[in-house]
Amino acid sequence: MLNQKFTLRAIRPSDGPAIINLNTEFDDDLTTRFLLDPYVAITEGTEFRTQGVVVEATGYEEIVGMGTVRFSRVQFNGQVLPLAFLDNLKVREEFRGQGLGYQIASWRIQQAREILGNDCVIGTGMLQENLASRAVAKKWCREVIGPLNAFIVPVRSRVPKSPKGITVHEIESREYEEFAAKQNMFYKDHNFYMQGDANSITRSLSIVPGGKKLYRIYAVVDSSGNLLAGAHVWFRGLIKSDTINNPPAALRILNHALHLFPADLVIRDAAVTGLWHAPDQLQAAEYLWEMIRYLSKDEATNIATGFDPRDPIQAAIKLKPWHQPRPKIMIAIHGPTPIDRDKLIFSYGRV
Q1: What is the DSSP letter of 108?
Q2: Domain count, the chain
Q3: Pair 105, 214 in one domain
Q4: Angstrom distance (rounded) from CA 69 to CA 109
Q5: Edge-first strand listing for the sheet containing 49-57
Q6: Is 351 within the bounds of a domain?
Q7: What is the predicted pLDDT for the residue at 269?
Q8: Is residue 58 part of a domain?
Q9: Which residues contact 187 (CB under 8 A, 6 or more apart)?
Q10: Are 124 and 85 in contact (CB under 8 A)?
């Protein structure tokens, strides 16, 4: 369908059915299905202010492409700058090869600069092997960095053994300030880290689209109540699921033996970010990771997280050889200055 005329516009509440059709017909390795109204899931489903764009084509009833952009403020080369992160780029197969990917990126970048100013940081993530996405990104980005490690592991059915004298609980309001301060200190030199405080914790925990509590924040304490470690968990799987399409036979056999994913290959993941620990308390972070796997078993099938491969906190994640896949993620960036590559990268995560 060459020489089509395309119109790009902001998503509307009425676009829900068309977004569902675009996502469920998308011929990728994963098919995303919304478990909540798509407009609500996109605009109210995370702690980030999010906008979306859809593409209409003359003579075609359905939308033929879409993308989203989420806004935040992050550390970048020793400053705190506004960030626009581009996500969820999709173009219907028969309309590819006509520059729509770049048009969708350009629409979102223009929105970002109108809202955040020209000194904002713009970024997007892509699988290392996704050459098409990298080709689109190279048209607007300043540089590509990575790869970052992404880990996807199954939830636990049994509670892990607790180290003596420490426990895990959902964070309490009296702990908000101390938790945020310790997490901020832990990540003070990471590019892309979004600093927190009591107000940001309160906002995250109040996000309940469709009555679904999407965020939980966990703390590890000792017998005296000292905060030893913590992490944020976003239950993406309460608003979206991912179906693995046409898995290779080896993955099916491995999954049958080790239960890496549900038998129907429908994944509902919980994303862990901001894992931190007090000095000399790596064991507390290790225990917290395993407890999150257990505590998430009723809302999720798998736990996802990501790290700069140079980041010492990665040692808290104990992976088994069969914990697969382990995607590699590249980040395309356009910032006011080139990124300081000596600084560690905070994994921003997907939506």
Answers
A1: H
A2: 2
A3: no
A4: 9
A5: 6-10, 49-57, 65-76, 79-91, 121-127, 328-334, 143-154, 302-307, 269-277, 227-234, 215-222, 166-170
A6: no
A7: 96
A8: yes
A9: 75, 193, 274, 276, 346
A10: yes
Query: Is 251 domain-assigned?
Result: yes
Helices within the chain (DSSP H only):
16-24, 38-44, 100-116, 131-137, 176-186, 198-205, 249-258, 282-295
Compute the distance between CA of residue 105 and CA of residue 108 in angstroms, rounded to an integer. Answer: 5
> Do both 18 and 74 map to the same domain?
yes
Which segments in the chain show pLDDT lower than 70?
Answer: 1-3, 26-28
As a whole number of angstroms, the distance between CA 263 and CA 322 comes to: 16
At 258, give phi and psi (nearest 5°): -115, -5
The 10s digit of each residue's pLDDT in 272-316 is 999 999 999 999 999 999 999 999 999 999 999 999 999 999 999
Range of the domain at 47: 6-147
Q: Can you tell me the distance from the alpha carbon of 97 to that of 113, in angstroms, rounded to the nearest whole number?
A: 27
User: Any idea which residue has 């970010």 for tokens?
Assistant: 273
Is there a single domain that holds both residue 125 and residue 238?
no
What share of residues in the chain are helix, strand, coil (percent, to 5)?
30, 35, 40
d(CA 180, CA 198): 7
Question: Do 92 and 214 belong to one domain?
Answer: no
pLDDT tens-place string over residues 61-115: 999 999 999 999 999 999 999 999 999 999 998 999 999 999 999 999 999 999 9
Antiparallel, parallel or unpaired: β 302-307 and 269-277: parallel
Query: How far is 265 from 24, CA to CA, in rounded Å?
Result: 15
From 130, 147, 164, give the residue that closes a domain.
147
- What's the confidence (pLDDT) of residue 277? 98
- Concatenated DSSP letters of 267-329: E-EEEEEEEEE-TT-HHHHHHHHHHHHHHTTTT-SEEEEEE-TT-GGGGG----TT-----EE
Residues across the chain: 351
Q: Is residue 178 part of a domain?
A: yes
C-alpha torsion sign, points 193, 199, 202, 207: negative
